[in-house]
Write a structure and sequence with these properties.
With about 180 residues, the chain is mainly α. The protein is about 60% helix and about 5% strand. The protein has one domain: Hypothetical protein af1432.
Length: about 180
């Protein structure tokens, strides 16, 4: 599917979930449409447009499946889960820029680099800020926990064993996504 159609589908889905997409700047839409999910192209996923492609077709479906595997009484709200998954990586649209170092691109397959002009905060936290700024998403404690769960160190036992079900699903869906996209093509 092409980048324009992915952006159209992405914005349509967010709108269906009650997210206000009417005030999102054209500049941010363009950045989202062309964003890469990963900086390094070891497995063919570091390219313009891979962010929305992977979020729509890999990450979000994994999260839905994980939620459906749980007993009904502990499942989370499906629409909230989808919204969080769709917003979880949006900061990559401004945090990662095309690499201008030919050696790194050829030898390391590092097609994108982190923009040094962006704040020195983690991807999830930055995405939560952008969700509030660009999409007027209300920020709750559960939303922030789920948005920042992958920012937490793996040795953080509070995050590992005591986070909400929503955050656990988001973390596991991300892990499954990286397993899938890191397979040799």
């Amino acid at each position: 599917m092409d980048k324009e159609k992915n952006l159209e589908l992405y914005l349509k889905k967010l709108s269906q979930l009650g997210v206000d997409v009417s005030n999102v700047s054209d500049n941010f839409k363009e950045l989202l449409m062309n964003a890469s999910f990963v900086p390094q192209d070891d497995y063919g996923n570091a390219h313009k447009g891979s962010l929305l492609e992977i979020v729509l077709r890999v990450l979000t479906p994994y999260a839905i499946k994980l939620n459906e595997m749980l007993p009904a009484e502990v499942q989370v709200d499906k629409n909230e889960l989808i919204k969080i998954c769709m917003l979880h990586h949006i900061s990559k649209a401004i945090r990662m820029v095309p690499n201008d170092n030919e050696w790194e691109m050829q030898k390391l397959k590092k097609m994108f680099k982190y923009d040094e002009n962006q704040p020195s905060i983690k991807t999830g936290l930055h995405s939560a800020v952008l969700a509030a700024q660009e999409f007027s998403v209300p920020v709750t404690a559960e939303f922030m926990e789920a948005m920042t769960i992958n920012d937490r160190d793996l040795s953080d036992n509070q995050a590992r064993f005591h986070c909400s079900t929503m955050a656990s699903i988001v973390r596991m869906a991300n892990e499954m996504t990286y397993i899938q996209i890191n397979q040799k093509k």
